[in-house]
Amino acid sequence: MVNKRSFSEICFDTFNVLLLILMMLLTVYPLIYVLFASVSDAGSLMGYTGMLWRPLGFSLDAYTNVFRNPMIVRGYGNTLFVVLAGLVLNITLTAFGAYALSRKSLQYRKPLMLFIIFTMFFSGGLIPLYLTVKGVGLIDSLWSLIIPTAINTFNLILMKTAFEAIPDALEESAKIDGANDFVILFRIVLPLSMPVIAVMLLYYGVGHWNSWFNAMIFLQERSLYPLQLVLRGILLQGETNANSGASDDDAAMLAATLKYATIIVATVPILFVYPFLQKYFVKGALIGAVKG
């Protein structure tokens, strides 16, 4: 027998559905606006006010001018190298550190954690960081964007918490069979921690992809610029206008759509990657919130 829903339950569910639809629109609309603005006619967009639900005309001039810059392809290549090499180093070192700190038999475990947490609140500052990078010879090297950010303290604590949630009985059984710490880490701990690994990939990957400040500080050779710094140059230094030879009026109109095209160029790769990690993301991200 099916129980009839009361009027109050129907009202409550309806309110929730409408509220969620509204929140979805508020979240999705900025993305829709940027996409439509990037393919709109520049002259029509400059004189338009209000919400944008369709392209105003259709023009790919903004994308043409963005990709006309020869630094775009090189910037993509540099960024992909930083992301891929950085992820390998990030995940490896973070996993090693998290595994060691999650072992109850580790001596001075609590003092070590206090020193690590201390770095979340206090840092040496930009000048000591620059001098350190310069001292080890990483200036004008893509490794200057990778090695100084090899381990993020928050991510280390998150992965450590995930490793601690794995039952001790598995480790004890493996040690009885003669397994050492490397075997336990790679054959037991990591395979059981895929949700948090996916979160680490997303956190570190997005961090590397969006990074531009370190590149601006440590890189002088333009051929080493990552994508974000190239796009910043297009917007702020007028490189596209110089390459295209556009007149002042045309350049002013093109600037109206150029900023939206650069947002799309920089964001689309991350948007394509996220759906593949989404099923792990919520579970992995909440691990540190339920057990500290």
Automatic annotation (TrEMBL):
The keyword Transmembrane applies. InterPro entries: MetI-like (IPR000515), MetI-like_sf (IPR035906). The keyword Transport applies. The chain crosses the membrane at residues 12-36, 80-100, 112-131, 143-163, 184-206, 258-277. Residues 76-272 form the ABC transmembrane type-1 domain. It is a multi-pass membrane protein. Belongs to the binding-protein-dependent transport system permease family. This is Inner membrane ABC transporter permease protein YcjP. It comes from Paenibacillus allorhizoplanae. The gene is ycjP_3.
